[in-house]
Amino acid sequence: MQRYYTITQLTQEFDITTRTLRFYEAQGLVSPHRRGRQRLYAPGDRTRIKLILRGKRLGFSLNEIKDMIEMYRSAPGEAGQLRLLLDRIAARREELLEKQRDIELTLLELDDVEAGARARISELCADMPSEEV
User: Which residues does 102 contact at the CB level (< 8 Å), separation at least 6?
Assistant: First the structure.
């Protein structure tokens, strides 16, 4: 395992910009060591970046991700962190299922509107003299 990672190594590994990594630092999500102007990230910072990106893919806000990461460092520790994670997963799942229901209803409505438009076109074409069709 590497002792430190440079900003270039991490941005390339995770396909993120240096601006993103600096933003995470400004938000207190990672805290690199400094060697002059160079930022050096510990393996723990690398792990946190990985968790941040996973959390973002799952739709969690940075504040939610930060809460989960910080809980690991203090009481109730990992067990509390896992309970919080399960609660957040349940809430996110419900939110996505609600959106899915809304999308399904919208698709059904679009089907109805489309069927009505096609039926009306058929009526209009049937009423037209054959040279206008």
Answer: none
Q: Indicate the SS3 state at residue 31.
A: coil
Whether the CB-CB separation of 74 and 84 falls below 8 Å is answered with no
**Longest Cα pair distance anywhere in the chain, in angstroms?**
84
Counting the structural domains of the chain, the total is 1
Say which CATH number the domain at 38 has.
1.10.1660.10
pTM above 0.85, yes or no: no
Q: Which of 62, 64, 8, 61 minimizes the C-alpha distance to 32?
A: 8
pLDDT of 70 reads 80
Strand partners, 34: 39
In-domain check, residue 51 = yes
The pLDDT assigned to 1 comes to 66
| Helix pair 77-127, 62-73: axis angle to 10 deg | 160
Specify whether the CB–CB gap between 130 and 97 falls below 8 A.
Answer: no
Name which residue leads in pLDDT, 44 or 128: 44
